Automatic annotation (TrEMBL):
Listed Pfam families: DZR_2
Name of the protein described by the UniProt record: Double zinc ribbon domain-containing protein
Annotated family: Belongs to the ComF/GntX family.
Organism whose genome encodes this protein: candidate division GN15 bacterium
InterPro entries for this protein: ComF/GntX_DNA_util-trans, DZR_2, PRTase-like, PRTase_dom
PANTHER family in the record: DNA UTILIZATION PROTEIN YHGH
Entry superkingdom: Bacteria
Residue intervals of the Double zinc ribbon domain: 16-69
Length: 237
């Protein structure tokens, strides 16, 4: 049933994208670009050229391990800085269902960081789950849509069953950094412990302070999974 619903949701999202006029996802100007952005907004996006360590917030200029924090660090591969026009595009993707931009973000990340991500020997991509009630209200999980786009470009499987959300909590956009840490505590549970305990890369749309992905990593670690990295569309405060 879940697979059938997922397929139906994908068809509905595709139909919505086709029905929408060809407007820039960030500024609303007319554009026929398959990226979903006009030329002006594409140029204005503040892209990240290097992965960064979520523990020390420093860029990693070479290799796949933070030279300061070692193998215990979590490496973040993000497309760009969470400011406009990227911030507005993420909001349109997340809250308005403008999913066509997921392919562009995935294409750019695969081109820029594909070799480094492959060096982590990942077995599967795991999208950060939404609480079931929030996913039902939204109609989709934006992290899962993004993970699907990434998986096809990085040749990696997606598993949305390993990690589930058991606590709803408040939207992080309305909370301080300390409140976010408290809000996300105990939010996840691992239910698919029978699969091979291998490297897992988490996928989310936005990583700010990193509390959500750290909590997810902690739960996966307790179940025997190794989580060396996370991929996101945007990163910022």
């Amino acid at each position: 049933m879940a697979g059938a619903w997922s397929g139906l949701s994908e068809l509905l999202r595709g139909a919505v994208d086709l029905a929408l006029p060809p407007l820039c996802t960030a500024c609303g100007e007319y554009t026929e670009s398959p990226t979903g952005f006009c030329e002006s907004c594409i140029k204005r996006i503040d892209r990240y050229d290097y992965p960064m360590c979520l523990q020390c917030e420093q860029p990693i200029f070479s290799g796949i391990v933070c030279p300061q924090c070692g193998e215990e660090a979590m490496v973040l591969y993000a497309f760009g800085n969470y400011v406009d026009p990227l911030k507005e595009a993420v909001h349109q993707f997340k809250f308005r269902g403008v999913t066509r931009v997921a392919g562009y973000f995935a294409e750019e990340i695969a081109a820029r960081f594909g070799a480094e991500i492959g060096g982590l020997a990942p077995a599967v991509l795991v999208p950060i789950p939404l609480h079931p009630s929030r996913e039902h209200a939204r109609g989709f999980n934006q992290a899962e849509v993004f993970a699907e786009a990434l998986g096809s470009r990085l040749n990696l499987a997606i598993n949305s069953e390993i990690l589930i959300r058991i606590k709803k909590g408040k939207p992080h956009s309305r909370l301080s950094d300390n409140a976010r840490a408290r809000n996300i505590r105990g939010a996840f549970s691992v239910i698919a412990e029978e699969i091979s305990k291998d490297h897992v890369i988490l996928v989310d749309d936005v990583v700010t302070g990193g509390h959500t992905v750290r909590e997810a990593r902690s739960e996966l670690g307790k179940a025997g999974f190794h989580v060396p990295a996370v991929i996101s569309i945007a990163h910022g405060r």
